[in-house]
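Minutes, methods subgroup
Present: GH (chair), OT, SY

1. OT presented the first of two proteins processed in the latest run. Sequence and structure tokens recorded below as shown on screen.
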Amino acid sequence: MKLSSSNQIAVLVLLVCLICFYLYIFRPFNTALHNMATGQDAERASKLCSYVLSRVPIGGHSLSNTNQPPVEMQPSRNSARLDFFGVTNSDYQQQICAAAREWQSTNTDLMKVHIRFLEPEKPRGEYGQHIETLLREEFIVLTNAQSGVIFNQAAMKN
């Protein structure tokens, strides 16, 4: 059975519409949904942060919450990011990274840990933004074959 030319064009337009729907609506939504942090991810990241803070004493207090140390935690799907403000001593930084590695070796559900060390917190600007200089960041991957350190060379000169 052969379709008429108008039906062939209609099928072609329908096919193009379905492909566009998949590429621009369904796939991005599905990807975002599967990469969204769950409650378990937030709990794991919180336990990691508590473990690191129990192993390495960090002085100072957060500007936003004066009862807490200057650390921010952001969970992601099977990963976490910890931001430490005002930890400029490289020995403390190494201790923090070692404590995170130690915790991750026994908690294999957290595949990647991203640790950032920033200069001390500053008061937020007029529009609520604050930008601290990144001193160092480290990625700790569960296999430990892909861990790497990135230093801010400008901050190291000081």
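2. SY then presented the second protein from the same run.
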Amino acid sequence: MTVAEKVTWMTHYPGLQKKHLEMCGAELSIVANNQKQSQVITIPSTSYACEYRVGAPRLTYKNTAKILMWLEQTSSVSIYLYSGTDRTNLTTLIEGNSTPTVGAPFSINLDDGLVIIAHVVYKAANGSTPEISDGTFQFGYKVEGEKYPWWEQLLLGKQPRVSVLIISLFTIAGILVLCFPYCCVAFIGLCLLRN
């Protein structure tokens, strides 16, 4: 396979979940929170295009939350940023699908998701055989936005059994509060009628 064929094929390679750490130097899913984090990833020269999905746990942040991401350094690697949850629904973040500038901040809605595609750059000087080496990049990320309060998280569906239990308890308590006085009056009235 020529370098051109390999690069073309690489841009369409969906990383395999089980081998992703070995092939791409990091997990497929990268979990962000409201603390600044930084990650250094070294991609082996034998890898194809690697995909990294940056997101936060479902139903943790309100829908106005955003993922902030910035590239800190790169070496022998091309980076592409997309909005989406995986390779089946990507939208480019940078016009012309250009690579991001080191230090430039990017912001995307948390619900949309952020996908980073990276692949090793093969360097060839004056038609010689390409020099192939591992690629490295470092990027920072965090979630900026408000978290749901704990009591809203219970009702959002993170733990559906707990939500059903809470709603059931409030319903039973409401029925008892509304019906108890009526039942007591009715019971007393029946007792008086029998006597």
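Chair's summary of item 2: The chain has two domains: 3-147, 151-194.
Next meeting: continue with the remaining queue.
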